[in-house]
Amino acid sequence: MVYIVVGFVAWLVMGFVVACVMGFVVACAASDKGFWVPGWCFYGFVLWPIALGHVLVAKPKGKVDEIAKDDRKRSADPTWRCWA
User: Fold this and answer.
1) I need a surface site. Which of 3, 10, 15, 25 has the fewest CB within 10 A?
2) Residue 10 is inside which H or E element, if any?
3) Considering the domain boundaries, does residue 42 fall inside one?
């Protein structure tokens, strides 16, 4: 009985870790496209397979020139992270 409980808890912990990592991945992709990061992080945590597909096909928010300028600024700054 103890092994069943330990195995179940291990699967729950692994699922939680995977959901956290995928929420972060979705939030980083959404940040690159100019979307609100906390909302996408929660969306990615709860429904990460759907959110990942959604953010990959979503069009960038804002003008194309602003996004290109922002990308050049990010690539020039070595300390930039996806949460910036």
Assistant:
1) 3
2) helix 2-32
3) yes
Structural domain total, the chain: 1
Per-residue exposure over 15-37, b if at least 16 CB sit within 10 Å of its own CB, e if not: eeeeeeebbbbbbbbbbeeebeb
Rounded CA gap, 69 and 78, in Å? Answer: 16
**Cβ partners under 8 Å of residue 58, min gap 6:** 30, 33, 35
Residue 52 domain boundaries: 2-76
* Range from 30-34, 42-46, 52-56, 79-83 carrying the lowest mean pLDDT: 79-83
Q: Are 24 and 9 in contact (CB under 8 A)?
A: no
Domain-located, residue 40: yes
pLDDT band at 43 (very low <50, low <70, confident <90, very high): very high
In a domain, 67, yes or no: yes
